């Protein structure tokens, strides 16, 4: 497994090794023992899988607040996405800064988004499927979002037209309108 750092402390790109032959390839997307040796000792408890029918479907920017905050390990298993993490840790020197990584089945990359970061993605292909592991169960009472097009964050989603959004994401507040629940994590 190759582990790369990003411009945001704690956000990592993981690229598992692939073992190929004339049948195709095999990879371990997660191995708890090997990851613990690399400093990622994470108790994943929930796996999620989404399918977005149309390119330009944008999901985010989401977070789950303490005490049910989640680390996420995200991968794309069909289609393609731009996966984005935004530092949402109050007092962090990089608060409000973002990093984006293209995830596809072909490149096999995964994005690790730790607690204290907003997460979102936009699809680049029809019938895109995204799977991600979480370190806590979904808790609707802790669910939150920040607006995908917040000018203070300034994410370049690479969109040529308005994205396809859920009602929740379309109505999400701006960053300056939300008090980050992630205090003391910077």
Structure description:
- Strand 1 (2-5) and strand 2 form a beta hairpin.
- With 186 residues, the protein is mostly beta strands.
- The chain has helices at 32-37, 167-170; strands at residues 2-5, 12-15, 18-21, 24-27, 46-52, 58-64, 72-78, 81-87, 89-90, 98-103, 110-113, 117-123, 128-134, 143-145, 182-183.
- The chain has a single domain, classed as Jelly Rolls.
- It contains two helices and 15 strands.
- Helices cover 5% and strands 40% of the residues.
Short recap of the structure:
This protein has 2 helices and 15 strands. The chain is mostly beta strands.
What is the CATH architecture assignment?
Sandwich
Percent range for helical residues?
under 10%
Give Rg in angstroms.
16 Å
- Average per-residue pLDDT, rounded, comes to 96
Q: What is the CATH topology classification name?
A: Jelly Rolls
Instruction: State the name of the first-level CATH class.
Output: Mainly Beta
Shape: globular
Tally of discrete structural domains:
1
Order of helices and strands: EEEEHEEEEEEEEEEHE
Please state how the strands of the largest beta sheet are arranged side by side.
1-2-11-7-13-5
Under CATH, the homologous superfamily reads Jelly Rolls
The biggest beta sheet is recorded as: 6 strands, antiparallel
Instruction: Tell me the β content.
Output: 35-45%
Q: State the distance separating the first and last CA atoms.
A: 27 Å
The number of helical runs is 2
Strand count: 15
Low-confidence blocks of residues: none
Structural class by sheet pairing and helices = mainly beta
């Amino acid at each position: 497994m190759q582990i790369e750092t990003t411009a945001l402390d704690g956000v990592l790109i993981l690229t598992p090794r692939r073992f190929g032959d004339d049948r195709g390839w095999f990879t371990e997307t997660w191995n708890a023992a090997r990851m613990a040796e690399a400093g990622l000792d994470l108790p994943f408890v929930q796996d999620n899988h989404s399918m977005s029918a149309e390119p330009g479907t944008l999901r985010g920017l989401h977070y789950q607040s303490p005490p049910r905050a989640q680390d996420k390990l995200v991968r794309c298993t069909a289609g393609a996405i731009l996966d984005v993490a935004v530092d949402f840790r109050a007092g962090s020197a990089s608060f409000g800064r973002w990093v984006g990584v293209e995830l596809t089945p072909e490149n096999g990359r995964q994005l690790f988004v730790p607690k204290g970061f907003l997460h979102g993605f936009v699809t680049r292909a029809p019938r895109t499927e995204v799977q991600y592991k979480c370190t806590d169960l979904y808790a609707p009472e802790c669910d939150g979002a920040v607006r995908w097009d917040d000018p203070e964050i300034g994410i370049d989603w690479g969109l040529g037209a308005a994205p396809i959004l859920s009602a929740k994401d379309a109505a999400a507040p701006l960053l300056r309108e939300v008090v980050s629940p992630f205090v003391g994590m910077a």
